[in-house]
Amino acid sequence: MTNSQASLRLPDWLRPSIGTTEDISAVQQIIKQRQIHTICEEGRCPNRAECYAQRTATFLLMGATCTRACAFCQVDKGHAPMPLDPEEPQRVAEAVALLGLDYVVLTSVARDDLADQGAGWFVRVMAAVRAERPGVLLEVLTPDFRGDRTCIETVVAAQPVCYNHNLETVERLQGRVRRGAKYGRSLSVLATVARLDPRILVKSGLMVGHGETVAEIETALRDLYSVGCRAVTLGQYLRPSLAHLPVEKYWTPEEFGMLAAIARSIGFAQVRSGPLVRSSYHAHGLYSGQPS
What we know:
By secondary structure, the protein is α/β, with parallel strands linked by helices. It has one domain (17-288): TIM Barrel, CATH 3.20.20. Helix content is 39%, strand content 14%. The radius of gyration is 18 Å and the shape is globular.
């Protein structure tokens, strides 16, 4: 890697929009009062101001310490996460009701320390949210559960409308970017969901900027489609700190348009592709097939 690669200047198209202070404060207050974690904050998402302005957030379950150590992710890492909080399901449910959400995304840190890796906790939170907000649509964004079919079955049986598990990057870069994860295992998770319940929209996402090629991205998209994935997000990797992997390239909006065209040519009906796109960005619109 050259010095210029290590200090690439942030392009103007990667400067996120800012929501109104009033709306942002209202969401942050609801989250803080209930001691809820969100991937918006823990992952330093560039869209959090925009999403808060729309009075929405992606809830991060089971604490803010992940048992994995992915080289791209801002979330704290550690081998001794906090015990599960028995009040978290109800607090998340109350926040959903207060925000008036009709579509909710639930994600989590990886909890390899738990016997069921947190699968049952997803179900518990989903039940609490539905009790507080009947008719709500739930999307889950899960870890790979180390490929454990029983864990996947547990979450699928709770009938989310969308099951997301991110492939994150192309096969060649998996070991460098996703420590503890495997390309084939992630594809297997998605394939299992598709087989277990064809009614569930199967979704995944890729980051670009790690040095991948267009051909490698196309191969990853074809692999995803072949296992039953029908919705995909493509966004730019942004380096959270100097301790994380450097950005090798900032892809332009035009290049993201090209990637979207490739995905649609493969057969993906639901595609979000853009510099600031993240896996939960405008998730309801992607699920419902609204144009980006």
